[in-house]
Specification:
Blueprint: E1 3-4, H1 17-28, E2 39-45, H2 53-72, E3 77-83, H3 99-103, H4 123-137, E4 143-146, H5 147-153, H6 157-165, H7 167-174, H8 180-183, E5 189-191, E6 204-208, E7 213-217, E8 223-227, E9 233-235, H9 237-248, E10 255-256, H10 260-272, E11 282-283, E12 286-287, H11 304-310, H12 313-321, E13 328-329, H13 335-349, H14 354-357, H15 361-366, E14 371-372, H16 380-390, H17 395-405, H18 415-432, H19 443-455, H20 466-480, H21 486-498, H22 506-513, H23 515-528
Parallel strand pairs: 2-3, 3-4, 10-11, 12-13
Antiparallel strand pairs: 1-14, 5-9, 6-7, 7-8
Helix pairs in contact: 1-2, 6-9, 7-10, 9-10, 12-13, 16-18, 16-22, 19-20, 19-23, 20-22
């Protein structure tokens, strides 16, 4: 498949959100190459639960900003996907097996918790591998970093020494943000217990900034003096985030709206450590079908595997691109719309000038791979309604209708359409069929439907009828419904014939389903209610 690229564009004129973010980074670095020789993008991931689409979304959005930055500057860039896998297991996720066994390891670093799935050396390794697998599937250019490995290898030692030297200043930043009871026991440093291996949230009794050691009381009451270096301690979240920014010299990291206060406090902490907070986009969170925040431990989101069961990968990237500052409902019923919108943007791309193309989401979805040529001859929504009307659960049956509608279409030459037809069949089986609710037509509606069916006979065996059929459908509607009630006419058709509240444009549906099949469907409904 050939690809489209944008040439000779003045990128200073592009004002999409990824370019706005890229300009923030340029301002942060003063439009010059950082001392480390590159601009560092980071995404963070908590390894306490199975990765979900929100995790993927942060990497996807960050990659879009990174690409925009590459169009504004020749400065090299890197992207780190960081797993906070040294954090202690605080609660057992509800969506994993062997929960009772896993509960025995509460308080242990996630890299010390056995994999409940029995596949890897630890729960963290299992989740890290899953995250990398789905990032690799999308071809993201990133470098994985493990918190445990970074702490234990000594990569964070210099930054940890800065934390000890500025311990009192960090406490002064953090204590006002905590509840009174929490202030009594809080410390930004969490030592690893020498007796149990637990990540301890205990008061630090004394700090020796020169030696790099702390004194604390272990779980058995023993007073212990212990180094904070080489994995012997882990920092609390906000201090950890700031320390990581310092150690890695992070230039850009976005975060969800739930971390707004964390970003501000971490920014204050990294400043006292001698560093600088990265440029940041605070995006709004996804919510589930009940309006609740997506949670890894609850498992109430959609997995990337589930999305790809019903749709093409690009539709998921589109969902991530659109309106990052707006909270969006992430549930299965958003999938069809995102599929069709992706292909609408793709179809429009060739007709746009270069500047307009840079506002088209497909540019940010495909980035340097180039926007593919191609169009979808039948919408996903129409495929779904075709499956619904015909109660089709076999791809072979779907293609009988498709080729009847357009003999030039076939699975071999239309792989995208074939993929979406398979997805539509699966979506129909899992979501539409179980929720079909046919309404019995009223006596007046029976008259309308009979009139519609009778008049369709004039189109049998004719070609090039698209406009005439559209006019006919609207004329039938206007014959029985006022102009402002036409939507009730089409809604009646969907309710009575398809068993659902909404559907495709009626003329399009009749064309692809077939005129005689539509007449037969209407007559069967009328006879059943006679």
């Amino acid at each position: 498949m050939s690809e489209n690229t944008v040439d000779n564009i003045d990128y200073s004129q592009v004002n999409t959100w990824p370019f706005q973010e890229a300009r923030k980074i340029l301002a942060r670095i003063g439009n010059k190459v950082p001392d480390k020789g590159y601009v560092l993008f980071e995404t963070g991931y908590g390894a306490s639960g199975l990765p979900h689409i929100g995790t993927f979304g942060e990497v996807a959005k960050t990659s879009m900003v990174r690409w925009a930055f590459s169009k504004l500057s020749d400065i090299p860039t890197r992207l780190i996907a960081f797993s906070d896998d040294m954090d202690g297991l605080r609660k057992v996720p509800t969506n994993i097996p062997n929960q009772e066994e896993t509960a025995k390891y509460l308080g242990c670093p996630l890299t010390s918790v056995p994999d409940p799935f029995g596949k890897f050396g630890s729960f963290a390794e299992h989740n890290n591998v899953m995250m990398c697998e789905f990032l690799d599937r999308y071809g993201f250019d990133y470098e994985f970093r493990s918190s445990t490995q970074m702490y234990k290898s000594g990569a964070f030692n210099d930054a940890l020494m800065q934390v000890l030297k500025n311990y009192d200043k960090i406490m002064a930043i953090m204590l006002p943000s905590l509840r009174e009871e929490r202030r009594k026991t809080y410390s930004p440093i969490m030592p690893i217990s020498p007796s149990t291996g637990h990540v301890l949230e205990v008061p630090i009794l004394s700090v020796n900034a020169e030696a790099g050691t702390i004194v604390f009381e272990d779980e058995d009451g023993t007073r212990v003096e212990q180094s904070v270096l080489n994995g012997m301690a882990k920092l609390q979240w906000k201090a950890d985030w700031a320390m990581r920014w310092l150690a890695l010299d992070v230039d850009y990291e976005m975060c969800g709206a739930d971390l707004t206060d964390s970003y501000k406090l971490s920014g204050q902490i990294v400043k006292v450590l001698g560093g600088k907070a990265p440029a940041n986009l605070t995006y709004q969170l996804f919510v589930d079908k009940y309006g609740q925040k997506i949670s890894k431990t609850k498992g109430n989101g959609i997995s990337i595997e589930q999305w790809l069961k019903y749709a093409n990968p690009e539709s998921l990237s589109l969902f991530m691109y659109v309106k990052p500052l707006t909270s969006k409902r992430l549930y299965f019923d958003v999938i069809p719309r995102n599929v069709d919108e992706y292909y609408q943007y793709l179809n429009a791309y060739d007709k746009q000038d270069d500047l307009a193309k840079m506002s088209n989401p497909v540019v940010y979805i495909h980035r340097d791979k180039g926007v593919p040529n191609g169009r979808m001859p039948i919408s996903y929504n129409l495929l779904l309604n075709l499956a619904s009307a015909a109660n089709t659960e076999r791809i072979e049956d779907m293609w009988k209708y498709i080729t009847s509608y357009n003999p030039d279409l076939n699975p071999e030459n239309n792989p995208d359409l074939n993929m979406m037809a398979k997805c539509a069949v699966q979506y129909y089986h899992d979501f539409v069929k179980p929720n079909k609710n046919y309404r019995t037509p009223t006596e007046q509606e029976k008259i309308v439907l009979q009139d519609l069916a009778n008049g369709l006979s004039q189109f049998i065996g004719k070609t090039g009828i698209e406009k005439d059929l559209e006019t006919y459908c609207y004329d039938i509607g206007k014959k029985y419904y006022s102009e402002d009630k036409l939507k009730d006419f089409f809604g009646m058709f969907y309710n009575v014939l398809l068993g659902q509240e909404t559907g495709p444009r009626l003329p399009n549906f009749i064309l692809i389903y077939g005129i005689e099949k539509t007449q037969e469907m209407i007559n069967n409904i009328l006879q059943a209610g006679a």
